């Protein structure tokens, strides 16, 4: 009986401890058409970046050690020869032009995510680089998100953290594009 009580107590303790450490989500909607939105999910502790920046959406980690910028592209605004992959490549080249000592850490590889939700699946294509900017070393994680349920738009995530903080933020950098979805208005 004591073992059973101890087991129940430990189970309750670990589930409560796990629940307290998990960050809640906040949602940001971005209109891509009259009938559709892209919904982004950020950790509740992250804050929107105010002020001037080139992104449609930008968020900072609580201590400013990581940043996520999101470009949203509507296909109607692009020429027929422009592809999501070509825009991702251009975005990477643009960022690389501002860095020194650039090293490709992980090659691009498309990952098809099938979801059971109403928004269908998506394809995520990511690449990870290290580089220096103004004397500091950073990881740069680029992700292209293409949505099966909407061919009207796609998103490119440009995410960065210092080398020392990378392991603390990698999961967040992978989850935000994976949790992004198309929502009908």
Automatic annotation (TrEMBL):
Record key words, sorted: Signal
Keyword Signal annotated: yes
Signal sequence region: 1-19
The name this protein goes by in its record: PsbP C-terminal domain-containing protein
Protein source organism: Budvicia aquatica
